[in-house]
């Protein structure tokens, strides 16, 4: 029988019974009641009875629907308590079978969606390994269960040269490589587990090309380092990727609990610090966290914090190191060098904080401060008729800012400084990697009078064709090239070859860190144009530099040269 047919038949029988009863009552009243008043009362009773029966017949199905809807409401409210499993109530299934079926189907779809969302939220979609959130949760549980006296280990794995794969083969091939790396790491973990009964190591992909492995039970430090070496060797083997043989490596940081931390967070931080040391050593190796790394890291964090305050509180200063022409013997300019007047440690040299500023991005803010200081200083010089060129370094981080060149021009324009009084120094690597848009901006500055110099030449990668086409005025030899030029024949041969190369592209040559006259004599003979170094002038502040220029005689400068 179709849904609802039973209810319709039941209502029809009830209504028929009501009509028949009304007929019998009315017939009896007509046959036996003779008085008018009694007939009126009988008619009212009969009518009321019919209305009551009709109401019951119509209300019966409505009350069952209401009860079914109430039961359905209670079932839906149970979701607040997390009940996504119970089926629709029997009353709903009896009165509203289609609604009950729809409710059951809806809850099944919701459960499936939640399971899918959980999988997406807890597992990496590329490698199917646990993600960072899942790893932290599970590793916390594993570490909490480590018995006192036992050790656990954390391996932080960062792939070497992975970016080259993405750049050359594309991100799709990069993802395929990550899957292959994950599979090799699974093999290492499975092999380490062997036939032993215990808690399985936890392998996860944290982000990008970073993986981590947590071993909840290790016997000693030597075993942990052995595991790290196995991972290094596994990743060092070439990968066959769609006809390409891909060679990457892995830098691994290792930390051990409780020696290097008693929480997952502290172990991950220690392993991360050790990994960066392994990468700094050239990659393809592991590094175990130790107290020296901890001290170095804490010093770095403290330097970052203090350096931020230094910029805000005016602790930085600009010093000027004279540049001497080997041709005329005159001071032809100066390089602006940064000094940090630390409130507790005194004067700090750039090599103690510039690398940290580069890594943290603070170098962009510091670079803006230097530009502002140089612009203000040169503005005063220009108004006083003192025209000496000052060079300053430009960080690659500054070049990353789209508005850098506009702000640089504005800074010197605000102080009415002609661009002929400035020289911008770019590192060799930054110049080689600069985009065409950056090169166009540099060319425009040069066309407007600014000098352009290539700094630290001879230590990085140089594209000779790019060097020939770059807008350059001067090339500064790296101090390591000058160090043994007067005592080492090979050093002289290398410097002579570099000098001829630079002369060939039409640039002047500046030698930095010249410490004595013997070096200066050799460099002059080789064709070097300008020198700077402690032998001819240590970095000094503006007042001292102005005094040196004003009071030094040309003859004295010539004798020094």
Task: Give the SSE layout.
Elements: H1 5-32, H2 36-77, H3 90-95, H4 97-122, H5 132-144, E1 151-160, H6 162-169, H7 171-193, E2 202-207, E3 210-218, H8 221-236, E4 239-241, E5 244-246, E6 249-257, H9 264-280, E7 286-288, H10 291-313, E8 316-325, E9 331-342, E10 346-348, H11 354-360, H12 362-383, E11 389-394, H13 396-399, H14 404-414, E12 422-427, H15 428-433, H16 436-447, E13 451-457, H17 464-469, E14 474-477, H18 479-482, H19 489-504, E15 508-511, H20 517-526, E16 530-531, H21 542-551, H22 554-560
Parallel strand pairs: 6-7, 9-11, 11-12, 12-13, 13-14, 14-15, 15-16
Antiparallel strand pairs: 1-3, 1-6, 2-3, 4-5, 8-9, 8-16, 9-10
Helix pairs in contact: 1-2, 6-7, 7-8, 10-12, 11-12, 12-14
Keywords: Membrane, Transmembrane, Transmembrane helix
Protein name: EAL domain-containing protein
Pfam family, one: EAL
Explained architecture:
It is built from 22 helices and 16 strands. It is an alpha/beta fold and 561 residues long. It has three domains: 3-118, no CATH class; 132-289, Alpha-Beta Plaits (2-Layer Sandwich); 300-549, TIM Barrel (Alpha-Beta Barrel). It has an eight-stranded mixed beta barrel with strand order 8-9-11-12-13-14-15-16, surrounded by six helices. The protein has a five-stranded mixed sheet with strand order 2-3-1-6-7, with helices on both faces. β2 (202-207) and β3 form a beta hairpin. The termini are far apart. Residues 553-561 have low confidence and may be disordered. InterPro entries: Biofilm_reg_signaling, EAL_dom, EAL_sf, GGDEF_dom, Nucleotide_cyclase, Rev_trsase/Diguanyl_cyclase. The chain crosses the membrane at residues 12-33.
């Amino acid at each position: 029988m179709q849904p609802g047919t039973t209810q319709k038949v039941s209502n029809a029988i009830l209504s028929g019974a009501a009509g028949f009863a009304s007929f019998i009552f009315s017939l009896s009243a007509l046959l036996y009641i003779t008085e008018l008043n009694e007939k009126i009362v009988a008619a009212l009773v009969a009518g009321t009875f019919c209305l009551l029966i009709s109401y019951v017949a119509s209300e019966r199905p409505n009350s069952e629907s209401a009860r079914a809807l109430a039961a359905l409401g209670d079932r839906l409210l149970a979701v607040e308590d997390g009940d996504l499993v119970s089926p629709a109530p029997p009353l709903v299934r009896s009165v509203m079978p289609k609604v009950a079926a729809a409710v059951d189907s809806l809850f099944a779809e919701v459960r499936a969606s939640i399971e899918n969302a959980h999988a997406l939220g807890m597992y990496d979609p590329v490698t199917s390994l646990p993600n960072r959130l899942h790893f932290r949760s599970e590793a916390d549980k594993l570490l909490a269960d480590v018995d006192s006296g036992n050790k656990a280990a954390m391996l932080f794995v960062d792939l070497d040269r992975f970016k080259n794969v993405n750049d050359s083969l594309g991100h799709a091939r990069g993802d395929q490589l990550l899957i292959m790396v994950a599979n090799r790491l699974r093999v290492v973990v499975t092999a380490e587990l062997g036939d032993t009964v215990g808690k399985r190591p936890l392998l996860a992909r944290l982000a990008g090309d970073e993986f981590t492995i947590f071993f909840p039970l290790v016997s000693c430090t030597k075993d942990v380092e052995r595991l790290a070496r196995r991972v290094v060797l596994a990743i060092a083997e070439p990968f066959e990727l769609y006809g390409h043989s891909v060679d990457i490596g892995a830098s691994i940081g290792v930390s051990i609990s409780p020696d290097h931390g008693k929480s997952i967070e502290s172990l991950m931080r220690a392993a991360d610090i050790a990994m960066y040391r392994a990468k700094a050593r050239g990659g393809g190796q592991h590094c175990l966290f130790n107290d020296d790394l901890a001290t170095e890291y804490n010093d770095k964090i403290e330097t970052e914090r203090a350096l931020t305050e230094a910029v805000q509180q005016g602790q930085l200063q600009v010093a000027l190191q004279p540049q001497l022409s080997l041709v005329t013997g005159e001071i032809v300019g100066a390089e602006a060098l940064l000094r940090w007047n630390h409130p507790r440690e005194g004067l700090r040299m750039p090599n103690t904080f510039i690398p940290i500023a580069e890594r943290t991005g603070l170098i962009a803010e510091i670079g803006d401060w230097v530009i502002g200081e140089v612009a203000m200083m040169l503005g005063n010089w220009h108004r006083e008729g003192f025209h000496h060129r000052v060079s300053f370094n430009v960080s690659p981080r500054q070049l990353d800012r789209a508005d850098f060149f506009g702000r640089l021009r504005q800074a010197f324009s605000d102080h009415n400084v002609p661009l002929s009084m400035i020289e911008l120094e770019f590192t060799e690597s930054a110049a080689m990697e600069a985009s065409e848009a950056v090169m166009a901006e540099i060319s425009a500055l040069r066309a407007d009078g600014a000098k352009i110099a290539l700094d630290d030449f001879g230590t990085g990668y140089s594209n000779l064709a790019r060097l020939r086409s770059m807008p350059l005025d001067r090339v500064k030899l790296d101090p390591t090239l000058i160090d043994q030029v007067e005592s080492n024949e090979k050093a002289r041969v290398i410097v002579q070859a570099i000098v001829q190369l630079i002369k060939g592209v039409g640039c002047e040559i500046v030698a930095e860190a010249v410490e004595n006259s013997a070096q200066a004599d050799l460099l002059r003979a080789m064709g070097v144009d300008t020198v700077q170094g402690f032998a001819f002038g240590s970095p000094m502040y503006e007042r001292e530099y102005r005094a040196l220029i004003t009071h030094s005689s040309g003859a004295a400068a010539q004798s020094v040269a």
